[in-house]
Input
Amino acid sequence: MSDLITEWATQVAEAELCSVLPRRWAHTQGVAKRAVEVSQIFGLDAGLLVPAATLHDVGYAPHLAATGFHPLDGARFLRDEHRADQRLVRLVANHSFALLEAEERGLQEELVTEFPLLDEPLLVDALVYCDMTTTPDGDRTTAQDRVAEIRSRYGDDSVVGRFIRRAAPEIFASVERVEAALAAQPR
Output
């Protein structure tokens, strides 16, 4: 992946989110900024993390919401309309433990079949970290506060509320692994 992919990802995400979902666009920009900051631990895969962070919520664009499940809708859009890199699309499809939400929505089989999870645990964790330590307005937060905010916004009895309660331990573990990897880096 190259800087051209990152530029393309930014253009696509901005075109899809900026005017129709400005708060989602602010979150996306914050997540991408976090990805730039943590990409130092990934060597050559840094060029994959930043575009994935930039595109992770593109499926929220109203005209893309075929299933109403943004990871799947976004990944299909990137695959079908843009012929995006398979690894990039799989990261978008599976960001932040999307499989658990797919189960809640009856979409698990579709997600697993079309977009299997990458076998690159630290890269997957890094995207979780970037997403779950960024507020809806693009500011830094803790994973605990982010999960609490999501639960508050959607309600515990909603599909998202049930999902986020189930995913919270995994989210926290991902964030801890990335924080440990970052702390181990020479300064």
